[in-house]
Structure formats: structure tokens, C-alpha cells
Amino acid sequence: MTVTMDMAPGKAEVDRMRDPKARRPVMARTAVVLAALFILSGCGLFAAPCRVASAGLKIVPLVGQVAAAPTDGCANVIDPTPTRS
């Protein structure tokens, strides 16, 4: 594929892409969005290992529910969820 002058960015565009000051608003916006997502997401990511271990223990017949109680408690302390009735 050949690059023609119509496809290539102009000198002003190249200079703007290389200028760190021009990228600051984009990086600031990205940081704000990531911070908002982190705050709004809760701690579900950190509770996931406890929940996965609990689900694995609940598979065991007869003693699974009892064995999974501590890991359920761990997950609920990290990320409280409404109880299912």
C-alpha cells in the first residue's frame, strides 16, 4: 500500500501528536473515567477469589455448605451483597 499526501498527516498534526501538553487533557480525562469506574465498581474484584473458592466447596456433597461458610463470610465482608431468600 502506498501512502499518498492525502492520507499522510500534515506537519501541524504530527507536531500536535508529539506535544506532551496536547495529550494532557486526554490523559486527565482517562484518569478521571478510570477513577470513577474503580469507585463505582465496589470491591467485587477483590471478593472474587473468596466467591470462587466458596462455589468450589459447595460442590462437595453433604459438607459443602458448611465448609463454604467461612469463604462466604470472607466474601461478604469484602463486598456485601444482598442475601437471597
Note down, in words, how this protein is organized.
This protein is mainly alpha-helical. The protein folds into two domains: 11-41; 44-78, no CATH class. The chain has four helices and no strands.
- Count of helical stretches: 4
Order of helices and strands: HHHH
Largest sheet: none
What value does the Rg take, in angstroms?
Answer: 25 Å
Please state the overall shape, judged from the principal axes of the Cα atoms.
elongated
Helix-residue proportion: over 70%
Topology:
Elements: H1 11-18, H2 20-41, H3 44-58, H4 64-78
Helix pairs in contact: 3-4
Please name the defining characteristics of this protein.
single chain, mainly alpha, 2 domains, 0% strand, elongated
Summarize the structure in short:
With 85 residues, this protein is an all-alpha fold. It is built from four helices and no strands.
